[in-house]
Amino acid sequence: MTNRSRWLVAIRFSALVALPATMMAPEIPTAAQARYGTGKRIVAVAWRMLLTGAVLTLALPVFAHHSFGIFDRNKRTTLVGTVKELQWTNPHCFIQLLVAREGDAQGTQDEWSIEMASPGQLVRGGWKPRTLKPGDKITVVIFPMRDGSKGGYFVSGTGSNGKLGATPR
Domains along the chain? Predict the structure, then answer.
């Protein structure tokens, strides 16, 4: 072997020894790296998963809140009574209505809770916080509760001075 060939072998050997460890032996990726990649991609996927979870968590109450499943929309019940209170509150307004029991000669009254739309929707339908006052005599049509309890969802109504405002659904 000549000096020149010894020199070339030494250079090649030193180059092999000086190679980074990643080039010497292949790195075995973790399960997460194999599935999602590495570095920035893992962070991006984690953020997407976190944001999706947050949006779904925040959206669930909205879906639950706007369910009208408790009302029987195939039936309508007409109630004649006296306003106890108009609750002008978010997210829904309520009329507390005192209704005489049918067939009761003593004049016993039941309190019905009638759910309505939000105050903003009622204002657009012509309602005001003082549209109904305690003691007003009204007739309302409601979708009754499915479970038979004394309540329902307001459909329409008339007061002593005519038709009550509309309630958008």
Answer: 3-65 (no CATH), 77-163 (2.40.50.140)
